[in-house]
Design brief:
Elements lengths: L2 E10 L2 E11 L4 E5 L6 H8 L7 E6 L2 E2 L9 E4 L11 H12 L4 H10 L14 H13 L5 E5 L7 H16 L3 E5 L3 H7 L3 E5 L2 E4 L9 E6 L2 H10 L5 E3 L2 E5 L5 H10 L4 E7 L2 H9 L1 H4 L2
Parallel strand pairs: 3-8, 3-9, 6-7, 7-8
Antiparallel strand pairs: 1-2, 1-4, 4-5, 9-10, 11-13, 11-14, 12-13
Helix pairs in contact: 2-3, 3-4
């Protein structure tokens, strides 16, 4: 088990900011935290990393208590760039992490090359752009080859080139077996990285692990929807119908099978619409009240 969180509650005085947060991650994956500002995303990450105390709940990470000091060598948390020191160089930061993690200093150069920051590693951080700072933070986070990385808004404010570079690095880390929990408002980038999303609102997880978010959904305009319904109902498939249109997902019915079944039964198809639900559409459905002007 990578993470097991049961009944996590956090209060500031009488204000409850996390309400019975419960979830598990049992295999390496990328998990996105999505929700409006103030929904509890950063607070939850800080609680998981033992940076904030909480009133109730059980948290285990990699089979250990979240307070176990040995997790320092297996888990990384990328916070915002306020943790960086402007008078130090990027290389200074990486060498310090090597010292703290008991790693050979040469690891700093290797990771700088991997992240793509060798051209500015020896410059003072005060001269860095936002993208350069984010790359340095990510380099610091992956120096110890962590099994778990938590990232709080790593893509926020990045230009398209830096955002794509960051995404590719995270996908590569995941491919190597690292579990990533990423808090982000960039729903387009989230769609490109994962379809496992925890939507948060007012300190609660509304929905999680929406596996069908990026699976294609089809709407077919057919000549005889009543007959089409009978065909697929007899095959044990309950599809959605509205007037002359039938709607289904690739997961429930592969498109080619639908076309073959309709053709074999003499039902004509005049139009096929292909769409994906996507994180943004689901966000709009869940947070409709917040989006009203």
């Amino acid at each position: 088990m990578i993470i097991n969180v049961q009944g996590l509650k956090k209060q500031y005085k009488k204000q409850e900011v996390l309400k019975n947060i419960t979830f598990q991650i049992d295999q390496p994956k990328i998990v996105a935290l999505v929700g409006p500002n103030g929904s509890g995303k950063t607070t939850m990450l800080n609680c998981l990393m033992n940076l904030l105390p909480f009133q109730e709940g059980v948290v285990t990470i990699l089979g250990k208590s979240y307070k176990d000091p040995t997790l320092f060598y297996e888990v990384s948390y990328l916070q915002d760039n306020r943790v960086l020191y402007g008078d130090l160089t990027g290389e200074d930061h990486l060498k310090f992490i090597c010292y703290a993690q008991k790693l050979p200093v040469k690891k700093a150069k290797e990771v700088a090359e991997y992240i793509g920051m060798t051209s500015y590693a020896k410059k003072r951080v005060r001269s860095y752009s936002l993208g350069m700072k984010q790359h340095l933070l990510l380099a610091m986070a992956v120096l110890n080859n962590p099994k778990l990385v938590l990232l709080d808004e790593p893509i926020n404010g990045l230009d398209p080139t830096s955002a794509i570079h960051m995404r590719n690095i995270l996908l590569d880390l995941h491919a190597k077996g690292t579990t990533i929990i990423i808090s982000s408002h960039n729903l387009d980038e989230i769609d490109k990285m994962t379809n496992t999303i925890f939507f948060m609102k007012d300190g609660e997880i509304l929905e999680e692990s929406l596996k069908d978010l990026n699976i294609p959904h089809y709407t077919l305009t057919v000549s005889d929807p009543t007959k089409a319904n009978e065909v697929f109902k007899s095959a044990g498939l309950a599809l959605e119908y509205q007037e002359d249109k039938m709607t289904f997902s690739e997961a429930s019915l592969p498109l080619q099978r639908a076309i073959d079944e309709l053709n074999q039964n003499g039902i004509q198809i005049s139009h096929i619409e292909n769409r994906k639900i996507g994180a943004e559409k689901r966000y709009m459905e869940l947070f409709e009240s917040e989006l009203k002007l």
